[in-house]
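Problem: given the chain below (182 residues), write out its structure.
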Amino acid sequence: IGDHMLLQRDMPVRVFGKASPGEAVTVEFRGQSAATKADALGRWEAWLQPMKPAPAAEMTIRGNNTLKVADVLVGDVWVGSGQSNMQWTVGQTNNADAELAASASSEIRLFYVPRKPSPVPVDDVEAKWVVATPETVKGFSAVLYYFGRDLNKELKVPMGLIHSSWGGTPIASWISGPTLTS
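Solution.
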């Protein structure tokens, strides 16, 4: 959850986080309000009803503290994952200078998952959503960016692109432990 994030359109939206155990939490966005309570471990989740794309808006999350999340869009969210072909960046493509110069778009949001190994599944990563600019697009997955850019032009819907790739990794590192042993 953070400024510039993009939520999936036409589907219920799960908003989640951590608070004090038993703390009441309310999520407000585009006229909707969803209330919940944190469990004994302080985890909470609230669900917003499906939404259509519209201009960016602010989300408010209230508990013991108030969090304002700015510039939130609703559109399509895509995950790009894999090895070196998905890791290859826009800055490495043909005509990179021209592509980067034309890359600024407030309707394309990028999320780059850091390459940080973990022996167990994690609930969160240290990363943030950013708006597409020449600076943010340059080191982003070329395959995913061009895919999202073209869909944005064709569908006229904001795109949220989540880049999670790591070149040269063995396939086993992308499969859960229980699946590997079954």
